[in-house]
Design goal:
The complex is a heterodimer. Chain A is mainly beta. Chain A contains 2 helices and 5 strands, in the order E-E-H-E-H-E-E. Chain B folds into 2 domains: 19-50, no CATH class; 52-187, Alpha-Beta Complex (Nitrile Hydratase, Chain A). The chains are: A mainly beta, B alpha/beta.
Chain lengths: 104, 203
């Protein structure tokens, strides 16, 4: 299976497509774009989406600079939901900002 | 228009309205009582949303079905491919996800109701419902079955949560029996729900 490789224009980035990562298990207050259900879960970088103004700052009227690198991360359903009953090959994909990811 | 009177615009949320719905309703009623706005203005604004974001998805996808090079460009960079086709996606970035014999894609926004408005217009009420948003990430096959869509076990179901800055559209498989059809005729069988991934187009 080939995956599109668009949006790789963020030159300074920690991760590349195929890298194994884990979403940080942390619960800071405020407006966050990382849903609770995905925190702490392991996944693989599916693509680099580019760099975007940080929505966690924009939400409070700041300019969102410096921009943050946004990744598309692929998770196995069974890694996200321990009781998932569907096939092994079912996946969930989310957009996760770099500061929410650590190498796994 | 055909896509706006879909039979399953049924309410997924049949329980009591949420606190936010009640607050929003109360504020609107107060503003109307005080003569700041009228319900007609609210209705007109909603109509304007529809006019601002016309429903253009089927044209784009039908073109991708007949033009392999365009399809490849759409999958590579959805925004650029749509612009080339005369559909300006404004600030949205678009990721087109392709259904294949091995993969079925479905789109949700668990945090709110992000939706490819520039392509598909305003989202249907079920897409915004807590029921859909909460369940499709956790039991997608059960939710798809409720839409009458049964995905075989050997096909990978891939759920896309549009939780940040990208928007998504599903490129469904062109059904058998549509060989030789014009783009216009193909566009006629491409429904909004197929582009969200909860149904499959039928010839």
């Amino acid at each position: 299976m080939t995956l599109p490789s668009a949006y790789t224009e963020a030159p300074v980035r920690r991760f590349a497509r195929g890298d194994r990562v884990r979403v940080k298990q942390t619960h800071p207050p405020g407006h966050r774009r990382t849903p609770y259900y995905i925190r702490g879960k392991p996944g693989v970088i599916e693509r680099v989406c580019g760099a975007f103004a940080n929505p966690e700052e924009l939400a409070y009227g700041f300019d969102g600079e410096p921009k943050r690198v946004l990744y598309r991360v692929r998770f196995r359903q069974r890694d996200v939901w321990p009781h998932y009953t569907g096939p092994q090959s079912d996946y969930l994909e989310l957009e996760i900002y770099e500061h929410w990811l650590e190498a796994a | 228009m055909k896509h706006h009177d879909h039979s399953h615009d049924r309410s997924f949320d049949e329980g009591a309205p949420s606190e936010y719905e009640i607050m929003s309703r109360a504020i609107q009623e107060l503003l109307e009582e005080k003569g700041v706005i009228t319900s007609e203005q609210v209705r007109q604004r909603m109509e304007q949303f529809d006019a601002d974001f016309p429903y253009r998805g089927p044209r784009v996808i039908a073109h991708a079905w007949v033009d392999a090079a365009f399809r490849a460009r759409l999958l590579e960079d959805g925004k650029r491919a749509c612009a080339e086709f005369g559909v300006d996606l404004e600030a949205d970035r678009l990721i087109a996800v392709e259904n294949t014999p091995d993969v079925h894609n479905v789109i949700v926004c668990t945090l709110c109701s992000c939706y490819p408005r520039a392509l598909l217009g305003m989202p249907p009420s079920w897409y915004k419902s807590e029921n859909y948003r909460r369940r499709v990430v956790r039991e997608p096959r059960a939710v798809l079955r409720e839409f009458g869509t049964v995905i075989a076990e050997q096909v990978s179901v891939r759920v896309h949560d549009s939780n940040a800055d990208m928007r998504y559209v599903v490129v469904p498989m062109r059904p058998a029996g549509t060989e030789g059809w014009s783009e216009e005729r193909l566009a006629g069988i491409i429904t909004r729900d197929a582009l969200v991934g909860v149904t499959l187009p039928k010839a």
